[in-house]
Amino acid sequence: MNNDLLSDLSSSFNPSNDFKEIQAYEENGVKIALKFRDVSQITLEATKTGFDAVREFVFQAAVPKSMRLELLPASSSEITGQDDKITQVMKVHNVNL
Fold first, then answer.
1. Which residues are CB-contacts of 93 (< 8 A; sequence separation ≥ 6)?
2. How far apart are CA 46 and CA 54, in angstroms?
3. 45 contacts 35 by C-beta, under 8 angstroms
4. What's the pLDDT tens digit per position in 21-35?
5. I need a surface site. Which of 1, 23, 36, 38 has the fewest CB within 10 A?
6. Which H, E and C letters describe 19-46, residue by residue?
7. E runs forming strands in 1-97
8. For residues 97 and 45, what is the distance between their CA atoms, to the nearest angstrom?
9. pLDDT tier at 82 (50, 70, 90 boundaries)?
10. What pTM value is reported for the model?
């Protein structure tokens, strides 16, 4: 599996679209989608695909040294119902600009 979740974003990304969405992960009863508002704001949306509750969910991310990552607090740390979800916003800043 490719660990670079953003590798399929093309250089023709159009920020005028509402969202570009990438299904980043779907295993062990958890599905994670990354929704790009623009090139600097990414919203993580985690849902459960199995019957068991997801507890103590923590998302971690890293960016190259030339960028700064602001990881806002997650909406929750657990997903108990089928319609529940966790959202978390990541803001990526280029420190060279």
1. 40, 67, 68, 69, 70
2. 10
3. yes
4. 899 999 999 999 999
5. 1
6. CEEEEEEEECCEEEEEEEEECCEEEEEE
7. 20-27, 30-38, 41-48, 67-71, 86-94
8. 29
9. confident
10. 0.73
